[in-house]
Amino acid sequence: MLPVEAIVLDIEGTTTAVAFATDVLYPYARARLPNYVRQHRDEPAVAAILDEARAAGEVWNDEAVVVRMCHWMERDQKVTPLKELQGLIWEEGYRSGVLTTHLYPDVAPTLAAWHARGLRLYIYSSGSAYAQRLIYGHTVAGDLTPLLSGYFDTRIGHKREVASYRRIAEAIGTPPGRILFLSDVREELDAAREAGWQTLWLVREGLPGLAAAHRRVTRFDQIRL
Ligand SMILES: [Mg+2]
Hints:
This protein has about 220 residues and is of the alpha/beta class. The protein contains eight helices and six strands; from the N terminus they run E-H-H-H-H-H-E-H-E-H-E-H-E-E. The chain has helices spanning about 20-40, 45-55, 60-75, 80-95, 105-115, 130-135, 160-170, 185-195, and strands at about 5-10, 120-125, 150, 180-185, 200, 215.
């Protein structure tokens, strides 16, 4: 195997417990969405998001658009204006100190060590790049954004598609064989490998019995480069 020059990290299930999103982030946004819209709807950024949401939901007043967005959230529908509004609500929570991102304890020390060795670190997650910066700017281990060289979201393509990994390799200017992808989802790892990347499967919560289609670790500090 070629020496690794860049490491691309998934967030949920890889650096951060899936439960942090399902039990903390999403309920936080859901509980605050109606009030947030009421308080901020005259601000240009929020007004633009509401316009987009009205068009996407084919509803025409603020009450109805709030109901529609709550409905999308319940069903975990990835609608762009909803994702943007969630980002703004989370920003308020992170900046006020109410929200702090969970990280597995092995993550921050390992990322710092990799960064110190000159490895470039990137995030690739389905949450917006904007939300990724917030998430990594306010973790239990502090602001980790100085360790990161870039953020990719579904604007580069979906995480289960080979083409996304080809585009990321091109964007970061690194030969595919020198990129290592860390994820907890097999289909994502399969796509990355098909693009020529090295892969490691994070099995955080332990799922014995799965075929070892990729090299597996349960913690970052087991990774030898
Ligand atoms: Mg994941």
